[in-house]
Specification:
The complex is a heterodimer of chains A (291) and B (161).
Chain A lengths: L6 E3 L4 H10 L3 E4 L5 H6 L7 E4 L9 E3 L3 E5 L4 H6 L1 H6 L1 H7 L5 H6 L2 H7 L5 H8 L3 E6 L2 E6 L4 E3 L2 E2 L5 E9 L6 E8 L6 E11 L5 E9 L6 E2 L1 H7 L6 H12 L11 H28 L1
Parallel strand pairs in A: 1-3, 2-3
Antiparallel strand pairs in A: 4-5, 5-10, 6-7, 6-10, 8-9, 11-12, 12-13, 13-14
Chain B lengths: L4 E7 L2 E7 L5 H8 L18 E4 L2 E4 L12 E3 L13 H8 L9 H14 L5 H7 L10 H17 L2
Parallel strand pairs in B: 1-5
Antiparallel strand pairs in B: 1-2, 3-4, 3-5
Helix pairs in contact in B: 2-5, 3-5
Classes of the chains: A alpha+beta (291), B alpha+beta (161).
Chain lengths: 291, 161
């Protein structure tokens, strides 16, 4: 299990990177490498060129802009896991990161790598969808923004042209007090999730739900927002009956099946996890509002 | 002859310079180019954790990193945990005292992972330790003694002994 030979490029600037990405045929971009290098080792991918992003200046970092958090594509998962801005403004991302691989893979793995690899069970993709994130892309022909809702073109296929590179992501944060939760079920801790649910819940003063967002991962080729349930939740009392009713929407989703897990099981699991996540998020929202 | 690159890095405190093919991963570089066979390669696709080394202070899988990416880095493999005079690292001493290994195949990865983890969190409890080594597979399933050893090493590292 060794990679086939390839030419290696490690540009130092975004301009040099875009030049290489625009010029080289059959090239793969190397971010954290926690999926790509294993695929190279097993020769699932045999590129002629590997373009390493790790020495390109200006692609990593976390910045608080008030209404949003700006995250560079090469920001390590480990950095996100420990960042005080993420802890204060988007703690659901840190809860999700506890399920992403292991200590050693999070040392190297990046948010941009997760988004571009677009594994159907990738927790960071679910978080990006939960916040209606905007993805920033650069190419030889210029820059453009893509909404996370439009990012997936199909199984593990992001809406990137061959000459384009993901440079960063903007997460619009919720300014009002709210609760969060990320729960998932995997066969073993750190394995790919069978299903996972991230949610945010804001309450008005009387424990009525003012706003809710629910993002489900692992059930389809890309994270799914449970918009019908989000609408139905608004204005309802934050109690068990409300969460149970909302979770019914998740059980009706069209789910993937694989060798181990049937579509029916995934749909049932999506319902259970949605109900559980809403209850945790609402309890935390009550703490945030009254605490 | 495939394209090669000259890299310079520090391995276990010693400067190293070598000519490598870009496709050679760091684990093979340590074992085959440098002869440091303490790093074990199990699955070579990032699942087993046996090949874990410490790169610039953080634990990383050496099978999922190319040697050329370590150009300029500080790498510590299991051979670099003990002091030059042979004094064992607290985690090595604790594995010895608590019988934290059986066949020994996973041991280098367990030791490097825990050495890096406990350096940051010497007061970690059992749950945190189990999570820290969740990416290291021991097929002898000797986890109980490994966790006991990690708890003891944490205590020793807190106490400065």
């Amino acid at each position: 299990m060794k990679p086939a030979p390839f030419a290696y490029h490690d540009p130092r600037t975004l301009d040099d990177l875009l030049g290489l990405a625009g010029r080289l045929e059959n090239a793969k971009l190397l971010a954290g490498g926690q999926s790509l290098v294993s695929m190279l080792n097993m020769r699932f991918v045999i590129p002629d060129h590997v373009i390493d992003l790790n020495r390109v200046a200006g692609l990593s970092g976390i910045a608080d802009t008030g209404n949003a958090i700006e995250i560079g594509a090469m920001t390590r998962q480990r950095a996100l896991e420990r960042d005080p801005v993420i802890a204060a403004k988007a703690p659901v991302m840190q809860e999700a990161l506890r399920h992403v691989g292991h200590l050693q893979t999070r040392s190297r793995g990046t948010i941009g790598g997760s988004l571009c690899h677009l594994d159907p069970s990738a927790e960071l993709c679910a978080v990006a969808r939960l916040y209606d994130a905007t993805l920033h892309v650069a190419g030889a022909r210029g820059k453009r923004d893509i909404a996370m809702a439009d990012w997936s073109l199909g199984f593990m296929t992001p809406a990137l042209e061959p000459d384009e590179v993901l440079t960063g992501i903007t997460l619009p944060v919720w300014r009002e007090p709210h609760g969060h939760a990320f729960v998932e079920l995997a066969r073993r801790h750190g394995d790919f999730a069978i299903a996972g649910v991230g949610c945010l819940v804001a309450l008005d003063g009387k424990d009525t739900i003012a706003r809710a967002a629910i993002s489900i991962v692992g059930i389809a080729t890309a994270p799914v927002r449970l918009t019908e349930a989000e609408t139905a939740l608004t204005g309802q009392p934050a109690n068990a009956a409300t969460f149970k009713a909302a979770a019914v929407h998740a059980t009706k989703l069209d789910c993937l099946a694989d060798a181990h897990v049937s579509a029916a099981y995934r749909a049932r699991l999506a319902g259970v996890l949605t109900e559980r996540a809403l209850a945790i998020a609402a309890a935390r929202a009550q703490g945030a509002a009254h605490g | 002859m495939a394209e090669t690159r000259r890299i310079r890095l520090t391995v276990n405190g010693r400067p190293v310079e070598a000519e490598v093919e870009p496709r050679r991963h760091l684990g093979d570089f340590l074992r085959q180019t440098l002869g440091l066979t303490g790093t074990h390669l199990g699955c070579e696709h990032g699942v087993c954790g046996a090949c874990t080394v410490i790169v610039d202070g953080v634990p990383a899988r050496s099978c999922l990193m190319l040697a050329v990416q370590a150009d300029g880095a500080q790498v510590t493999s299991v051979e670099g945990l003990a002091k030059p005079d042979g004094t064992l690292h607290p985690i090595q001493a604790a594995f010895h005292a608590h019988h934290g290994l059986q066949c020994g195949f996973c041991t280098p990865g367990m030791l490097t992972t825990l050495a890096a983890f406990l350096a940051e969190q010497p007061d970690a409890g059992e749950t945190d330790i189990r999570e820290a080594i969740s990416g290291n597979i021991c097929r002898c399933t000797g986890y109980e003694n490994i966790v006991d050893a990690a708890l003891a090493a944490g205590k020793a590292m807190r106490g400065g002994s």
